[in-house]
Design brief:
Layout lengths: L4 E5 L9 H11 L3 E5 H4 L7 H10 L2 E7 L7 H10 L17 E7 L17 H4 L1 H9 L3 E2 L3 E3 L7 H19 L5 H4 L20
Parallel strand pairs: 1-2, 1-3, 3-4, 4-5, 4-6
Helix pairs in contact: 1-7
This protein binds flavin mononucleotide.
Amino acid sequence: MSNSILVVFAHPAFERSRINRLMLDQATALDNVAVCDLYELYPDFYIDVAAEQQKLREHDIIVLQHPLYWYSCPALMKEWIDLVFEPGFAYGPGADALKGKWLLTATSAGGKLESYTREGHNGATVQELLLPFNRTATLCGMRYLPPFVVHSGHKLKRDEIQEYADQYGELLTEFREEHISLKQANSVVELNELLPSFHPNNGGG
Ligand SMILES: Cc1cc2nc3c(=O)[nH]c(=O)nc-3n(C[C@H](O)[C@H](O)[C@H](O)COP(=O)(O)O)c2cc1C
């Protein structure tokens, strides 16, 4: 048995992306991982709700991949959630389309790992900041997982970014092959910690 994964991707300035571009290359290369690039599909913000709901129905694990923008996701991803997670589909009486699916965020942040602590510059972990996604998933009966996070985005060199991208590919593969249990996933603050190749990047600003 293996899981099918849908990566819902949002980057408003993909042509300037250093990190998400390499992460997306990894996702695109994997079997049984579908990628939906929202800014490419819907540059005018007119989302095909029925088509997006069908994609969600067809996959077991939903990954929201985006750069961290003002401690959240870019606008089109929020619009996608607002429109696609409809009552009767995602929640409310009789709605069970998303029940039991797993949802996680894969994001890149300009800020370094240490700045994302209660005591640090940003005053909270990325996981804590993503609480609205956690609650949304939970309300819809999904199983919400900690995020995969690339830190110190502005300072990373090309080979360091590639290392993170490889980790992301590794993580998607582990999830696809059901090698990571819900319990394991929920035992960490960031999913990066579950990978054998993980080493925290504390550099950068
Ligand atoms: C509008 C905007 C808002 C941003 N907000 C944050 C933020 O809240 N926290 C953070 O760590 N980085 C923030 N950044 C930095 C981006 O997250 C960073 O440039 C991005 O993750 C790099 O990924 P990329 O190479 O794929 O573009 C922001 C950048 C922009 C343009």
